[in-house]
Amino acid sequence: MHRSRPAIAALLVAIIATACAAGPAPVGPPPSSPAPAPDLRPVVDQAPYWCEYIPQEAFRRISGITQPLTEEKDGPWKDDGGCLLSGNGTEPVGVWWSRIDNSAARLKLVRENWQHTDQIPLPSEIGDGFAAHADNDMLSGRPYYVISRFTCGKKKPWIRIDLETVVKGRDAIKDLTDLMRIAQKRYGHLHNCSPGPV
């Protein structure tokens, strides 16, 4: 069978028109699946712990961070110390404490440093202190902050916890307060004393 040139030309035009009408082939990866819903369950005190004071499961619920983290301690950890968690170039949590520092002077200085924030007082049963969230980049990118001075035996220690992020939908101040309550309980366990208000 022999087709004329006009018939072949018409067939080619029809093929090209159909290909153009279909649009370009999709470029790039397929759309990702929606992010999992945040974990809004309450903070719970259960081992294992990060930096001696923060339950790992509680931290992951609060922050939503699931990546592996490395714990880096600073100081002798007998009378005082500090600890950072690091992973993927960030340090999403810091814990600092002392039982030899003047806790009243420490809290006074911290209140002055955080005076531009809304300092929410902690419940009196967990000592004198506050929880806050700074909009700016306080504490090397960890703007969620809680500090408390309390009694434990004959000492008046203080503990500070700061977080990089809190999952949207969680109550950050309540979570920070709950973390402090757990940290004080852990302090009492580690130092063989009973935590109480100042």
Automatic annotation (TrEMBL):
Protein's name in the database: DUF3558 domain-containing protein
Signal peptide positions (record): 1-21
Keyword Signal: yes
Record flagged with keyword Signal: yes
Origin superkingdom: Bacteria
Keywords in alphabetical order: Signal
